[in-house]
């Protein structure tokens, strides 16, 4: 399997564009998959420079209904004339940040025929499946950090029922992809216990001292209970990643724009 990071918050390559968001190009033995599309067309421009032909992607997956993961949907539909995009049935909800600014998807795309709306579980093809885990217990409490969703005319704390995870089982290895882990990275790890976990951990709001440090310590220690190898990015936060890295060592890596991971 080969994973190319098309866009992420950071980059060490001056020829590539970094932005707050995430987009990964996944190549398995049989399929080419686009996982999330960042917030602009940067994922496409970077893909061209990195030699990732998105017109050949077999399908795409949207992890959840926020602009920094689905902002490039229209561009992908333009450059790839056949691929379907698998999204949660709840992805086009009215999502807001702490300042009550709309951070959801472009509503004009909701009726696009190549969008496939899925519920709690969907098997795309053999060994590749989507899971929302909305019926599972969230043992570890999570904080929405001001992110909201509009229901009955009022903005409520977002419960992230629109978030889904991509699980690829190939050659006896389970690889899990999560956009932001809004339902809690510890919950998701407990639900799947994959061999490899790739995605944002949504920890960037935590200080690396005081109560924040306690939370980061708890997270690191809990993540190391299983034998999972972790690669994180985006909403984990660079400082928070460095803090976790000190504890987790080679169990944790960081993926930035232009990174390529093969195993």
Give a verbal description of the structure:
Helix 5 (210-223) crosses helix 6. Helix content is 20%, strand content 27%. With 263 residues, it is of the alpha/beta class. The protein has one domain: Ribonuclease Z/Hydroxyacylglutathione hydrolase-like (Metallo-beta-lactamase, Chain A, 4-Layer Sandwich). The radius of gyration is 17 Å and the shape is globular. The strands form three sheets. The protein has a seven-stranded mixed beta sheet. A seven-stranded mixed beta sheet has the order 8-9-12-13-14-15-16, with helices on one face. The chain has a three-stranded antiparallel beta sheet with strand order 6-10-11, with no helix packed on it.
The biggest beta sheet, please? 7 strands, mixed
Overall average pLDDT: 97
Q: Could you estimate the helical fraction of the residues in percent?
A: 10-25%
Q: Cα distance, first to last residue?
A: 6 Å
What would CATH call the class? Alpha Beta
* Domain module count: 1
Task: Give me a quick take on this structure.
By secondary structure, the chain is α/β, with parallel strands linked by helices. Helices cover 20% and strands 27% of the residues. The chain has one domain (2-262): Ribonuclease Z/Hydroxyacylglutathione hydrolase-like (Metallo-beta-lactamase, Chain A, 4-Layer Sandwich), CATH 3.60.15.10.
Entry keywords:
263 residues, alpha/beta, Metallo-beta-lactamase, Chain A, seven-stranded mixed beta sheet, 6 helices, 17 strands
Q: Can you lay out the helices and strands and say which pair or pack?
A:
Layout: E1 2-7, E2 23-27, E3 32-35, H1 42-50, E4 59-61, H2 67-70, H3 73-79, E5 84-88, E6 95-96, E7 115-118, E8 121-125, E9 128-131, E10 148-151, E11 154-157, E12 165-170, E13 173-178, H4 185-192, E14 196-199, H5 210-223, E15 229-232, H6 238-248, E16 252-254, E17 260-262
Parallel strand pairs: 3-4, 4-5, 5-7, 13-14, 14-15, 15-16
Antiparallel strand pairs: 1-2, 1-17, 2-3, 6-10, 8-9, 9-12, 10-11, 12-13
Helix pairs in contact: 5-6
């Amino acid at each position: 399997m080969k994973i190319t990071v098309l866009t992420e918050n950071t980059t060490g390559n001056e020829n590539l564009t970094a932005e707050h968001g995430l987009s990964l190009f996944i190549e398995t033995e049989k399929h080419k998959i686009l996982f999330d599309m960042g917030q602009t067309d940067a994922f496409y421009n970077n893909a061209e420079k990195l030699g990732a032909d998105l017109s050949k992607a077999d399908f795409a997956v949207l992890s959840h209904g926020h602009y920094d993961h689905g902002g490039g949907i229209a561009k992908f539909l333009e450059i790839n004339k056949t691929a379907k995009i698998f999204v949660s049935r709840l992805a086009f909800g009215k999502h807001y940040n702490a300042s009550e600014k709309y951070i959801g998807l472009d509503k004009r795309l909701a009726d696009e025929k190549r969008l496939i709306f899925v519920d709690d579980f969907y098997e795309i093809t053999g060994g590749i499946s989507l899971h929302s885990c909305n019926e599972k217990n969230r043992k570890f409490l999570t904080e929405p950090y001001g992110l909201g969703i509009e229901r009955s005319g009022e903005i409520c704390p977002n419960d992230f029922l629109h978030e889904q995870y991509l699980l690829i089982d190939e050659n006896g290895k389970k690889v899990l992809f999560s956009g932001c882990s809004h339902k809690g990275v510890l919950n998701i790890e407990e639900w799947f216990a994959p061999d490899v976990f790739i995605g944002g951990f949504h920890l960037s709001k935590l200080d690396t001292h005081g109560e924040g440090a306690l939370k980061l310590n708890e997270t690191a220690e809990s993540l190391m209970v299983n034998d999972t190898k972790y690669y994180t990015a985006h909403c984990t936060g660079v400082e928070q990643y460095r803090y976790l890295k000190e504890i987790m060592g080679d169990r944790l890596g960081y993926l930035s724009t232009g990174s390529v991971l093969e195993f």
